[in-house]
Give the backbone structure.
Amino acid sequence: MLSLKQISKYYQAGGSKTYVLNRIDLDVDKGEFISIMGPSGSGKSTLLNIIGMLDEPSEGYHYLLGEAVHQLKEKQRSALYKQNIGFVFQAYHLIDELTVYENIETPLIYQNVKSSERKALVADILDRFNIVGKKDLFPSQLSGGQQQLVGVARALIGKPKLLLADEPTGNLNSKQGEEIMELFSKLNKEDGVTIIQVTHSEKNAQYGSRIIELLDGKIASSTLI
């Protein structure tokens, strides 16, 4: 599904390069659930953003679903992202001016899904996440756990093949965090969604099928669970 070859990300200052990622090689199969761990500054979020095409590597080769991402134009990359990737952020990234319903519906509008189909899909996911009663509320009227649920629902509405999650439980209490992780586990096992999460939590990492440890921009270890 995903293949990274010799991926580096660096910043040039004067004559020297500061590496955030240094020659990363990573292959991810369909249906895997991967947890990326490592200390702050090890390059975890940068790696996730490159996989999700929110950032570009300085060097290397990036393949997703058979497409050579490093050779695509921005418009082609954007189309590949919208059709195949869902992203869950620690800070939720909901649109404050939109209701819960409208936030969840947004990816479908980008995918040019017809209005009647959008209604059915949003109604279905609101029901699945038990947030039907919250559909007309704005993000500021929700708790952190509810906002993250909406963020996950929005990431899943377009039926992505790959779900990326950056510290998805970082702002939640332990019960809310557990609910989100159980949901991810279910999506992975029952729906076959490939998941890559960045986490500081050993407990959350154990939900995955493989743990990748980053250190100083390099893969220090890759362990099957």
